[in-house]
Design brief:
By secondary structure, this protein is α/β, with parallel strands linked by helices. It has two domains: 162 residues, NAD(P)-binding Rossmann-like Domain (Rossmann fold, 3-Layer(aba) Sandwich), CATH 3.40.50; 116 residues, N-(1-d-carboxylethyl)-l-norvaline Dehydrogenase, domain 2, CATH 1.10.1040.10. The chain has twelve helices and nine strands. β8, α7 and β9 form a beta-alpha-beta unit. The structure holds NADP nicotinamide-adenine-dinucleotide phosphate (NAP).
Length: 290
């Protein structure tokens, strides 16, 4: 391995672009690929090298970081990357891909001779930009020294959840955390929409939510609705995908989750109303007829 760690980032959307920027700032040799090439090319001013194909991006990489929409997108990109991959390279899989998705991706990693690390992240656009994500990781002990520089660049802390990436231990925790985050989103959206429907000034609702009932994320997202600001940190389309993954994982485990399924339905309606690319708090619109 060369002195300078080479990291290929596949997928430079909201999260991947911010993570790639922080890897550049940390002095790593960063290559980027994105399906829509302009988003990868935008990172060249930060010092990344934009590649035309996944295989070109991963050629010579010590670490490959995938941050794509879902499991099938990550599977497709890594299959295409195959010819460029060095056996023994570390695959940090940060896409929220679900339990089944991780099983498929880790099978591909085994087939390609890669070291697989299940590494979803907690935190949205802001923490990604400031390098303060919480990294949840499961993967072999041997890979950890190499990954220190990568995880330090993108996150404030890494929680290791065992050595077996294929068991999706990190992804399981990620789904548990996201189930709570999505409930906060829908709970906030529904309370503000109910206030509107009942002719209550939603500011009185926010004033009433003090002490143990208060919540910083609820306040942030309620303010976004009141300011009509749906700039995406986490889009409705992506959150809908996560909601489906949570429902699927719960069903497979024999756990009855009513709220997760209802939340997935709210996202479906908001998307059908044309709010798919807006922030997930656009769940608000699902409370009203068009
Ligand atoms: P995003 O901005 O929509 O980025 C999605 C990325 O996936 C883009 O690079 C997109 O390429 C690519 N993509 C989608 N379908 C593809 C396909 N079929 N083949 C190849 N590339 C494809 O989403 P994001 O918010 O960065 O989320 C990325 C991942 O991080 C998701 O798994 C999400 O659940 C997870 N996550 C998000 C957040 C958050 O707050 N945003 C937080 C934690 C985890 P194009 O640019 O060409 O569309």
């Amino acid at each position: 391995m060369a002195d300078q760690l080479t990291v290929a980032v596949l997928g430079t959307g909201i999260m991947g672009s911010a993570m790639a920027r922080n890897l550049c700032r940390a002095g790593l040799d960063v290559r980027v690929w994105n399906r829509t090439p302009e988003k990868a090319e935008a990172l060249t001013s930060d010092g990344a090298r934009a590649a035309q194909t996944p295989a070109e991006a991963v050629t010579g990489a010590d670490v490959v970081l995938t941050m794509l929409y879902d499991g099938p997108a990550a599977l497709e990109a890594m299959t295409a990357a195959g010819p460029g991959l060095r056996p023994g390279a570390i695959w940090v899989q940060s896409t929220t891909a679900g339990v089944e998705g991780i099983a498929q991706l880790s099978d591909l990693a085994r087939h390609l001779g890669l070291v697989f690390v299940d590494a979803p992240v907690l935190g949205t656009k802001g923490p990604a930009e400031s390098g303060e994500l919480l990294v949840l990781a499961a993967g072999p002990e041997d890979a950890r020294p190499t990954l220190g520089a990568v995880f330090d660049a993108i996150g404030r802390r890494t929680v290791w959840l065992g050595e077996d990436g294929s068991g999706a231990a990190a992804t399981r925790l990620k789904l548990v955390c996201n189930s709570w985050v999505l409930m906060l989103i829908h709970g906030t959206a529904e309370a503000v929409s109910l206030a509107k429907g009942l002719g209550v000034d939603p500011r009185y609702f926010l004033e009433a939510m003090t002490g143990p009932l208060d919540n910083g994320y609820m306040r942030l997202k309620a303010d976004a609705i009141l300011n009509d600001d749906y700039t995406p940190s986490f889009s409705v389309v992506t959150a809908a995908k996560d909601a489906r993954l949570i429902v699927e994982a719960a069903e497979a485990a024999g756990v009855h989750l009513d709220l997760a399924a209802a939340g997935a339905e709210r996202f479906r309606r908001a998307e059908a109303q044309g709010h798919g690319d807006e922030d997930m708090v656009a769940s608000y619109f699902a409370s009203f007829d068009n």
